[in-house]
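For practice. Any example?
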Amino acid sequence: MLGSMAEREVGVLAPERREQLLAAAADEFTRAGYERASLNRIIRDQGMSKSSFYHYFASKEALFNAVVTGLATAVAEALNPPSAEDLTEGDFWPRITELTDHLARISRDEPAAARLAGLYYLADAPNGAGTPITAVRNAVDDWIDRALEIGRARGEVGDGLPIALQRHLAKAVIWAMDEWTVANLDRLSPTDLGRLPATQLDAIKRLLAADEERG
């Protein structure tokens, strides 16, 4: 169970209407951040009254949680990521490359992926224990940590730094490149965009490489 009653949905909105509301809310949260996002603007743009909104959602946080849950479910279904244990079979980095390429396609073709990425990094998102955004972040961290453990055991990833720091560094590279891409999107050609996932992975691979590979 996620949070208290005040943080959960309290009514059932028609599926199409609910999808429209959550999409509009996702765009508002991504654009303004959680704290500055205007619940009034979301409601008004959807042609809803406040009393109608509160019939279905107990709070702004409940709406945010519903947005994250819906996006995470859609992305998980589209991505269908392998378990980290699958990396024990075959070549480690080529398997990571396959996953990265697939994720890049999902990010390009699935609006839910772009919206979830925008919410994932929000510094002011509700992130208490049991909240959907924390669950998503923990799931990502757990997968990366297990993948790093497997890479280290196979000699594909260096072991000179703690795994938690390696994960932090890898995510910092991803975030920095994603942030730069968004800021320069209007100047990037389709070819440029197509090269970015490989460039991103190459930077991470160099950062995490085993000592003998660095030389």
